[in-house]
Amino acid sequence: MNPPQIESPSADTATPATLGFAMPAEFAPHDACWMLWPQRPDTWRYGAKPAQQAFAAVACAIAESETVFVGVNDDQYENARHQLPAHIRVVELSSNDAWMRDVGPTFLTHPDGRLAMVDWEFNAWGGLDGGLYFPWDKDKRIRTKIAEMLGIPRFTAPMVLEGGALHVDGEGTLITTEECLLNPNRNPGLNRREMEQLLRDYLGIDKVIWLPRGCHRDETDGHVDNLCCFVAPGQVALSWCDDDADPQAAICREALAVLEAASDAKGRPLSVHKLPQPGPLYIAEDEASGLDRLDSSHPRRPGDRMAGSYVNFYIANAAVVMPLLDPVHDEEAKAILQGLFPDKRVIGVPAREILLGGGNIHCITQQQPRV
Predict the structure, then answer these.
(1) Summary mean pLDDT of the chain
(2) What are the tens digits of pLDDT across the range 67-76?
(3) Does the global pTM surpass 0.70?
(4) DSSP 221-234
(5) How many CB atoms lie within 10 A of CB 318?
(6) Which of 18, 50, 68, 168 is the most exposed place for a label (fewest CB within 10 A)?
(7) Do 116 and 91 meet the contact criterion of CB atoms below 8 Å apart?
(8) Candidate list 228, 229, 252, 363, residue with the active-site label
(9) Local confidence band at 295 (pLDDT 50, 70, 90 cut-offs)
(10) What is an annotated GO biological process for this record, any one (predicted)?
């Protein structure tokens, strides 16, 4: 059998879009979900043991309706294998940290049933200009390794981009933020027009909706997956804050104004569903004291505000796995999501330990679409 061809387009070769590939929506059926195992002591407190329990709970919830792969560094393989149920597949896949949404592949599908992926450039959310850790050499190899495991084509994109920076509706529309994709610490040589063209070329989309900013104090420079996402064609969920004294309120109003004035690639107006913002949430003294302090990583200090959001959920085949972050708002957010996904079971997972590391359930997962 001949090995799979790895496609790495350059200026004189075809792009995924010209070959008929496109990124499907997250709410389309999946074959699997990919995750990574947390262990960095400067990101995850107390040797990542509390975070590992939270990651395991997320993996178990998703595994109720789709295969889950958890990539693990060799020195944590036995520990992860013991902590995770037998039906969750543990594979050796070295990483610098555990944010599979951003370091993993963006999967593409073809009408003829083929699967492929985009291999974006990764610089740890800003490189040496605001990046969250150094080095990120293992993270950069994850997409190549998964392409080899699955035997699928890998399209190398000439731009820095993380998976959490975009959402698509599977019908030609992409939503993102100016704060992230136009940040000079990502692609200083690209303007908005050039960025949109690359998104069309590599994701098979037709229209980009630009929101101004992401959530307040989001250390990813404003990933859209913490603020807004598609829940169906023509419908989005938006994190919402009513407190005018909170900086997040202005961000929400800006986003709402853009969304209400926008139409998708099919010409439909967008229906916006508001999800309450949890908190505000802050890092406690005992939570910060359990972390290693390294000059090469982002500091996490007592009193720092965290960018908590119920929009940071994962849409599985038969479930929506959402973070539980605030007893005041958890049940309200869960009820709203159940209304948006009446045919799926909404599963809440205590997720503060994930948020302490800088993200949440959507950030630690990456769907592999069914073909």
Answers:
(1) 95
(2) 999 999 999 9
(3) yes
(4) T--GGGTEEEEETT
(5) 13
(6) 18
(7) no
(8) 363
(9) confident
(10) putrescine biosynthetic process
- Residue 174 and residue 168: Cα distance in Å, rounded? 4
Domains located in the chain, CATH noted: 30-365 (3.75.10.10)
Question: What are residue 281's DSSP bridge partners?
Answer: 306
Q: How far apart are CA 216 and CA 152, in angstroms?
A: 38
Q: Distance between CA 331 and CA 341 in Å, rounded?
A: 15
Q: How far is residue 122's CA from residue 371's CA, in Å, rounded to a whole number?
A: 27
- Position 10 pLDDT exceeds 70: no
Going by C-alpha positions, the residue among 272, 260, 277, 186 that lies closest to residue 229 is 272
- What's the start-to-end Cα distance of the chain, in Å? 21
Contact 44, 357 (CB under 8 A): yes
The tens digit of pLDDT for each residue in 208-267 reads: 999 999 999 999 999 999 999 999 999 999 999 999 999 999 999 999 999 999 999 999
How far, CA to CA in Å, does 29 sit from each of 68, 162, 326, 369?
14, 22, 30, 6
> Collapsing DSSP states into helix, strand and coil, what is residue 313?
coil
The CA distance from 73 to 97, in Å, is: 10
Check residue 143 and give left, alpha or beta (phi > 0: left; psi -120 to 50: alpha).
Answer: alpha
Q: Tell me the pLDDT tens digit for each residue of 118-135.
A: 999 999 999 999 999 999
- As beta bridge partners, residue 173 has 207
Q: Locate tokens 């994109």: which residue?
A: 157
Spell out where the chain has E strands: 30-36, 67-72, 89-92, 106-109, 115-121, 154-160, 167-168, 173-177, 207-211, 228-232, 235-240, 271-276, 281-282, 305-306, 314-315, 319-324, 345-350, 366-369
Single-letter code of the amino acid located at 59: A
252 is annotated as an active-site residue? no
Burial of 307 (0-12, 13-18, 19+ CB in 10 A): buried
Q: Phi, psi at residue 31, to the nearest 5°? A: -95, -30
Residue with tokens 């119920």: 310
